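Hi all, a correction to my earlier message: I attached the wrong file for NodB homology domain-containing protein. Here's the right sequence:
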Amino acid sequence: MKARLHYLYQKFLVNRAVVLMYHRIATPESDIWDIAVSPSNFEQQLTFLKRHFNVIPLSELAEVVARKKIKRKTVSITFDDGYVDNYVTAKPLLEKYGLPATFFIASGNIGQETPFWWDELEQLILFAEMLPQVFSLPFYENGGKTDLKEESFLSPELRLKHTTWKACEVEPPTLRAHLYYSLWQQLKPLPYQEQQARMKLIREWAGHVVTHPELKSMSVDQLKNLGSNLLEIGTHTVTHPALAFHDVAFQKQEIFENRKCLQEITGQEANLIAYPYGNYNEDTLNSVASLNFKAAFTTEERPINKQAHQYRLGRYQVKNLPFHESSSIFNQW
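and the right structure:
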């Protein structure tokens, strides 16, 4: 991580700012979307940031962007979704080093026992010890089916392939992985109710219930206690939809109700927003403008300069990399 941050400094941080994006601080068995950073690596990253960068609250960065007075070596830290490890693990470490951060919370999952649909789908398809050999449900690829063959049983070799697979970088390596990725693509653009209806059918087909407490979101009390002078709360919609697939009324309601809920729980304004999946369109930009958000953040990897669009501000996803990794890996940022 040290080499990666040095690269950011050399290439970007001259009158530019960088926003870092985290999701989970944990060491899960699998991390197919590359969104988890181990607690030890996270602490090393915080140590380096504190020593070499000017880490400021995201709300302050939004004001700096509006005034077009960005200073060099400026960094802000963000978290998406609201996983419980943000409260249990990330919060104490941020407080230990006195570093501010903003947590973008999908409020619909707060206080729920069930994980986000993509986490449940991953556990059901990739890690169930035994599955029916044939997957065939009415909504699946125009009524088609997938024969898992010998992969209906989760062998140690199959488990290893799944635990090391990175879906953003590598094609699905197994029949189960192909099935997972196909279902993920189908479910992502759907509204929440339809996602849940299809997940119910998948759950019944698999014959399993996912019980992984570490995949839960924060409780209401944890969210209430998260916000402080150091830690801010941001808007991330109610049900985490891919906004661009929905009409403007749907988008505006998801954003408005999320902010309202977060403000009622935490007492904070929640006037910054991050788009779920980084997905947005012109209707999204118009919606956040009409709701008077101070700034909006994407997942597009680019620094923030004086010319940056107020509602299309870039962020860099932080990977689970220790200090000793070669700088060539970090140059992909």
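Sorry for the mix-up. Residues 117-211 form one domain.
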